Request: fold
Amino acid sequence: MKKKLFTVLIFVKISTRRFFRDRLALFFTIIFPLIFLFVFGGIFGKNSTLSFKVGILNHSDSAYSKQYVEELKKSSMFKVDSEVVDDTTAQEKMSRGEIDATIVLPADFGVVKNGQYPSGQAEVHYTQNNEQAGQTLVQVMSAQFQEINKKFVHADTPFTVEAKPIHTQGLSRFDYTFAGLLGFSIIGLGIFGPVNVFPELKKQGILRRLHTTPLRVWQYFSSTAISQAIVGLLTMAIMFVVAIAIFHLHVIGSWLALAAFLAFSIITILGIGLAIGGWAKNERQAAPLANIIVFPMLFLSGTFFPRYVMPEWLQKVSAWLPLTPVIDGIRMIATEGKTLLEIGPQIGLLTLWFVIIYVIAFRVFRWE
Amino acid sequence: MAKNDPKTDDVILRVRDLKKKYGEKWAVKGISFDVHRGEVFGILGPNGAGKTTTLEMIETLREIDGGTAVLDGVDVAKHPWDIRYLIGVQPQSPSFQDKTKLTELLQMFAAAYGTRAHAHKLLEEVNLLDKAGSYVESLSGGQKQRFSIAAALVHNPKVFFLDEPTTGLDPQARRNLWELVEQVRDKGVTVIITTHYMDEAEVLCDRVAVMDKGKIIALDTPKNLVKNLLDKGFKKQQKVEQANLEDVFIELTGKALRD
Reply:
């Protein structure tokens, strides 16, 4: 047995070394998911707080109106587009969707009437396709004005509503996206890796040559799995560093639990790649089968968009896909701080898939 | 005759009525031969004669559909995993995973047998020491063949199989490979080689079996095969008293082209 494990160890060592010499593999495993991280991080990263892109047209000379505009510019809720200077530019930008709405302050805005306090009515202009943002903006501004009104006019407000966030660690859209991206990276590494490599190894007779040695399939599989897990954990470490440094990802769970869960996930998903690549005689068999299996998982397991946006029946079905417990588990450990015990259902489902996948992979493996 | 003791038995490979079927067609139709310890044994034949299939059955790569092959006292069909430790295999066109140094590949092959490789010593024996740190894809065809021999010998096998080792090599590379095969034999390793080059068989082989259509149709030393042909009254058209093994081969298997 010791000898058999020695075989695995040497194979792990050399194939891991070999991986880092393969620029193409490095690109697809490490750089490619990072590019996705930047793209999706750019889209969803800052969305954790509500914000509006607006243009401001101030037609008033009053001191108050100028002060109000300055306040808006400072507010994190508003991104003021300074290129909007008149109705024409505002119209253009709105129709192109570059800004959500235009806030128009009429000439009498902020003028002190009755010698007591400033008053006025701001207008929010928006196009039809931006109706939702426009109306939300109106509500947000009315709420702000009410606060301001209180300072000038004391009025009793019998009914009020106050927002009280309960979860201090609420999940942002990016938390979902990031877990999904790790899932995507695991798929790339675990499925597309072997699916591309194995048919080539068979075509050149490299596996056949190994088959004349006493090397066992389990030794070959486990050395591939360990090597891929090492490479995968390294890739994901890089992704975590980038996500934390640039996109302010908050990881509150145990890193050790996370690493263990990721390694198990990589090895399980890799089994799918080993099964397809090990079965296929050539690329023409491997590629279509890999696509049939991968695409449903990519879209239904929460890789690119969270599963909660799906219709309920689809959520129920997609919950059973092998990648779903992977993505859910990563998110639950990393951003919800759950322990391995608490994600028992995810680990259980993943273990079930591990057994099914590897039974198939061993059965269908061919050396040539 | 008493049961043979594998340790003292002069016969290292005993093949009896070996058969292989592909679909409905018998590719090997019950062949029998013995290979002696320490000899270079050649299997000759046109393409499709069943040479490679025969080799692959003994190498445990293909299932045996009938008959037996016993190598160094071990039944191939019954103990395929034991056989693998006894044999070294050089396939028809050797190739190795890319971006891996020669020394690393030798380590991997040795590891497959659960041992460590004397990588530099092996490379020196096949004249590739200066390439130790190179990747296999930078080797020429002849160098690849030589490296493949080193890879097949990492575990000191008793029998070394070469399947058409010189196909596609230039004359220099061929001669170099012949020398290497002789070196291997001189170390006491039994060599079994398939080829369709008669000059190769004449130079290298102590005995040859000629196969055609899944059967062995002649088995003897190259010299005796030629002598038998001459005794039958065979005469070459131009040279009066000479014939070489190529003549034997063509006489036995016919002149028609095979695919």
In short: The beta strands of chain B are 11-22, 25-36, 40-44, 66-71, 74-75, 87-90, 159-163, 190-195, 207-212, 215-220. The CA atoms of residues 69 and 75 of chain B lie 6 Å apart. Chain B touches chain A at residues 59-61, 81, 84-85, 87, 89, 91-97, 99-100, 104, 107-114, 151 (CB under 8 Å).
